[in-house]
Design a protein that fits this description.
six-stranded antiparallel β-sheet, hydrolase, Jelly Rolls, 3 domains, globular, single chain, Tachylectin-2, Chain A
């Protein structure tokens, strides 16, 4: 919902980080006076609906609100708990007369203080489902906020200092016939900022400027968003999923992404584009590919995932991707074909006028045909291409080879056959396949369409078929999918993975207008056990924003406080032989109210990530078994970045998870040795990390 009042730099003011930003705009400063106390600005009547009804609220219109609108029972329609309600009761617009009912509810009039907050849940629909604040004297809608497509409630904070002392009221608007919105625990005054001694992270779309931003201004806003990773790639606004088109071309690293600039939701897919001189610092470039039917917002036809290749004849940068067509709107079209675009400057791309270059799916592709990845086959000295597919019962990867002369070898393809097929246990459709040689082995990885796990297989290749020798998860955490590989000019096998997944409703950053994060650049290698290993590229050290703090050899009994930060690199080496504890725990994003735990068990060599007490993100536990190191040293390299954690173990194991802390105090890093015994660390190194944005 567009506000009719000038934007105030609310987020910066609430955090009191700066008075003037690099783009020259002035940040507001949150008043810290008695006027924000709750007894002077009590807010609306019945702010948490603990009366069990709509007392103090007025139904303006519609059938969505009535005696059944307040409940103690959370729906599981949009995901599972915890649901985060305060007290027992809360409001939801689908309880009185179902999802199809519409209507508007308004609160009693109250005097605005300098700040207010509330809990919101339900569907994302800014135009039809929102909580708003209205100026009583003229009906101006000052602020509005939609939800995240999750039943779990999330805290929104608004800087209302420009209207302090004026009469306002809240509205709950539901004009959607397919969704709902939930509201709880409206707070005004200083009480709006805290739970006891814990200060809320400042979330809400009204805190995110979107107009007239230079690149410098946009980058400066990255730093003040408490959910936004600082040294990982994210969209400023909108949505990203699969990394695509990874390549080093013209001496620079290029990262493309599946992208929806319109909303923090999947939609018609564009390709966003960024470049880097060092593989870790990024600069946004113009959008590379645009969907074919942008004028119809319901048409999800778009440019799906693909790859980038340097044309050996012309030197141009060529993209090879899926053209996906929504057959509801185009019933005679082929739903998925392979197309191409080319650029001579690495910025502007022209669609090939002979598209599609693969006009139909081959046999055994009933479940889909997408995500082409081109690779050079050194055994045959030609270009080949894998495409994700499935026959309706098992996932498979289709193989093509180039047939054209040098100048057109990437535009003419001949079907070879099924490169590799599953047994159905890993889904009926395999997405985002990558196939490439490392050392004397070949590696295949792909995404499982149901369950959305990323798998790798290591084995041999005879030019037409792949024989698997080793199978494993690409990443043992919950938030890794659609990984893409490439080889850089130094000959390194590198990859980026999407640090999110499809099987969760937990997207708290949607309330700040964006969703999706890409991993740090990773280097791939064959592990000692024959599996696929990974580690951060060496250039990650270039992201350090200050000197590292080394604690040296440290014997940990009980709990040891390592530092206080949410943007850092933690490296630790454990002397397994000298330690006698049954386990040790590293807590990240920790406070007395919440934390994420990383637990190593010495007996069974298991490493477990536990996010059940970790704020707004996906709650669960995920475990990996770590190989016994030959030197009895367990090495951990942990990248901590606002709302993401990437864990790399010395044996090549990786575990990735998104975490969204509720509170600003949740930045402690501490290590606990269990059972009253000791854990011996050869060293513990904590390095502050800066921004990835150039």
């Amino acid at each position: 919902m567009t506000k009719t009042t000038p934007y105030k730099n609310a987020l910066v003011g609430l955090l009191s980080l700066a008075s003037v930003l690099p783009d020259g705009t002035t940040a507001s400063v949150l008043p810290r006076t008695a006027e924000c106390q709750r007894n002077q600005y009590p807010g609306p009547k019945n702010p948490s609906f603990e009366t069990g009804d709509l007392s103090g609220w007025t139904v303006v219109n519609g059938a969505a609100f009535g005696k059944s609108s307040v409940t103690t029972t959370a729906s599981s329609q949009l995901g599972t708990g915890p649901f985060n309600q305060v007290g027992k009761q809360f409001l939801s617009t689908n309880l009185q007369d179902g999802e199809a009912a519409t209507g508007t509810l308004r609160s009693s009039t109250f005097k605005a203080s300098s700040v207010m907050s509330f809990l919101i849940g339900g569907n994302y629909d800014p135009a039809n489902l929102y909580v708003g604040l209205v100026l009583e004297k003229d009906g101006t809608l000052l602020f509005s906020q939609t939800a995240t497509n999750d039943e779990a409630l999330i805290r929104i904070v608004w800087d209302t200092s420009a209207y302090a002392g004026q009469n306002v009221y809240m509205v709950v608007v539901d004009t959607s016939t397919t969704g709902h919105i939930s509201l709880d625990d409206v707070r005004t005054g200083c009480h709006a900022l805290k739970d006891g001694s814990h200060t809320f992270n400042i979330l809400g779309q009204s805190n995110q400027p979107t107009k007239n931003l230079t690149a410098l201004a946009a980058a400066s806003r990255y730093a003040v968003d408490p959910t936004r990773p600082q040294y990982h790639y994210t969209p400023y606004q909108g949505w990203i999923n699969d990394p695509a088109g990874l390549i080093q071309w013209g001496g620079k690293y290029h990262l493309f992404n599946q992208f929806n600039p319109v909303a923090p939701l999947w939609g018609p897919m564009y390709w966003s584009h960024a470049e880097s001189t060092d593989a870790v610092h990024w600069r946004d470039l113009p959008v590379a590919l645009t969907p074919p039917y942008v004028n119809n917002t319901q048409d999800t036809s778009g440019r799906y995932t693909g790859s980038a290749v340097k044309n050996q004849d012309t030197g141009a940068l060529q993209l090879i991707y899926t053209d996906a067509t929504n057959v509801t709107y185009h019933p005679h079209a082929v739903p998925e074909v392979v197309s191409s675009a080319v650029s001579t400057d690495g910025i502007h791309f022209d669609l090939y006028n002979g598209n599609p270059i693969v006009a139909e799916a081959p046999p055994n592709s009933a479940a889909g045909f997408r995500d082409p990845k081109v690779f050079w086959d050194p055994t045959a000295n030609n270009w080949k291409m894998v495409v994700g597919s499935g026959d309706g019962h098992t996932g498979n990867v289709q193989l093509y080879k180039s047939t054209g002369p040098s100048s057109s070898e990437l535009l003419s393809w001949e079907y070879v056959g099924v490169l590799h097929q599953g047994d159905g246990s890993r889904g009926i459709m395999w997405e985002c396949p990558n196939f490439f040689p490392i050392d004397d082995k070949w590696v295949l990885f792909y995404g499982q369409d149901k369950g959305f796990k990323g798998w790798y297989e290591v084995g041999s290749f005879n030019g037409t078929t792949f024989v698997s020798e080793k199978l494993g998860l690409f990443d043992s955490g919950p938030d890794s999918y659609a990984t893409q590989w490439f080889v850089d000019d130094a000959g390194r096998n590198l990859a980026v993975t999407w640090i999110n997944n499809w099987n969760t409703t937990k997207w708290p950053s949607r309330v700040n207008g964006w969703a999706g994060t890409q991993s740090i650049m990773r280097e791939l290698f064959i592990r000692e056990d024959g599996g696929l290993g990974q580690k951060p590229v060496e250039e990650v050290s270039l992201l350090a924003s200050g000197p590292a703090k080394s604690l040296g050899q440290t014997d940990v009994y009980g709990t040891y406080e390592v530092g206080f930060t949410d943007t850092a690199r933690l490296q630790a080496t454990v002397d397994l032989a000298a330690s006698d504890a049954p386990a040790f725990t590293i807590e990240l994003f920790a406070s007395s109210a919440e934390s994420t735990s990383l637990v190593y068990n010495f007996a069974n060599r298991s490493l477990t990530i536990d996010t059940t007490q970790a704020g707004y993100g996906q709650a669960g536990t995920w475990e990996a078994t770590i190989a016994k190191p030959a030197n009895n040293r367990l090495s951990l390299d942990i990248l901590i970045d606002r709302s993401s954690i990437e864990v790399f173990v010395g044996d090549g194991t990786a575990m990735t998870v998104r975490v969204f802390p509720r509170y600003q105090e949740s930045k402690n890093i501490r290590i606990t040795s269990d059972g009253g015994k000791k854990t011996v660390f050869d060293d513990i190194v904590l390095t502050p990390m800066g921004s990835a944005w150039e």
